[in-house]
Amino acid sequence: MLVGMSGGVDSAVAAALLSEEGFEVVGITMRLWTDPSGDPTAGGCCSLAGVEAARRTCAELGIEHVVVDLHDEFERHVVQPFVDSYLSGTTPNPCVLCNRFVRFDRLLRLASQMGLGRVATGHYVRSDYDSGSGRYALRVARCIEKDQTYMLYRLTQDQLAAAIFPLGEMPSKATVRDWARSRGLSVAARRESQDVCFVTAGGYGEFVDRRSGGRMRAGSFIAEDGRIAGAHGGIANFTIGQRKGLPSSASGPKYVTGIEPASGAIRIGPEADLWSYRLMAVEPVWVSIDEPVGPIALRGRIRYNGVMSRAVVTPVSGGLRAVFDIPQRAVTPGQSAVFYDDDRVCCGGIIATATEGAPR
Predict the structure, then answer these.
(1) For the chain, give me the number of helices (H) and strands (E)?
(2) 98 counts as catalytic
């Protein structure tokens, strides 16, 4: 069993659980990013400190530890698409891409090379085989607060077939930490990392500007009445629904309502302009069910840990159309829309557009 080890408590407990169940466990840590500052703690799960913590955990468990350098793959599949997305006026989900195209893809290839048929991670999700549909289902974790299905919805059937998620049935993060303490694991109290691992200094805009060679487009703020309300330093500093960093207005708070990369315009308006019933998503993935021939009633979320709302989802050429029962706030191109039937992840895609029109 090849277990992805980030240096955190979740992957440590996943490895320990499997080891106690009698599996032959090998821990593997992926070196994905080296922070330019040289700070070994910078970068969360990608940091040098994370590698050392994983190595220490494997020594405590008495299992083999392997480190692989995947800087080039991480750059190609995650960092460059992140930069390109912001330059095009959208807001990406780098962890979604990393899980699909780097972590799980590489884990499976390495497991095959090492003669270890299965892989495991410390993600809070569940998975099983549904004999009725003939597909592997990705399911919400028992610990709803930590559920990570939104970040893993792009996993393929082959990846789900080979993966084990030992933390899927854990009732809480506190339970995981208590379990680690009871086994004397030194990572039991290690701090959790939530931010994008490769943006460790300055903001996203500064990172994009630096990595793009200064190609980030500056422009103007455009008010709802069409007048120019000020200037800004680059579109990568903004996302739909943002309030911080906008010109003050006598008519009340303003929010980013649109981003126009061709002109560099940031459109701003009142909060009422942020709400949408409909969205179109591209790069569709049908996870736990086959693609239906027509509309299907599901529940969806438009951001990680977002509130679930009922929606009718219709497959269309190259994408998905979703119409929600209630309007969604700040539907953001580049983010993912993920749809569920009870606890199963049915489908998802990358948000392309949003419209206000009420359902009919």
Answers:
(1) 10, 17
(2) yes
pLDDT at 37: 62
Residue pLDDT, tens place only, 18-32:
999 999 999 999 998
Angle between helices 80-87 and 204-211 (to 10 degrees): 100
Model confidence band, residue 304 (pLDDT cutoffs 50, 70, 90): very high
Domain ranges of the chain: 2-189, 217-269, 274-355
Neighbours of 21 (CB within 10 A): 11
Catalytic residue among 46, 197, 346, 347: 197
* Span 198-218, pLDDT tens digits: 887 778 889 999 998 888 888
* Homologous superfamily, domain 274-355: Translation factors (2.40.30.10)
Which one of 3.40.190.10, 3.40.50.620, 3.30.360.10, 3.20.20.150 gives the CATH number of domain 2-189?
Answer: 3.40.50.620
Sign of the torsion angle spanned by Cα atoms 297, 91, 227, 217: negative
Mark 73-110 as b/e (b = at least 16 C-beta within 10 Å): bbeebbbebbbebbbebbbbbbbbbbbbbbbbbbbbeb
156-165 pLDDT per residue, tens: 999 999 999 9
How many residues can be counted in the chain? 360
Catalytic residue among 98, 143, 346, 347: 98
- Domain range 217-269, CATH class: mainly beta
Is 95 known to be catalytic? no
2-189 against 217-269: fold identical: no
Burial of residue 40 (number of CB atoms within 10 Å: 0-12, 13-18, 19+) = middle
Token pair for residue 117? 């048929």
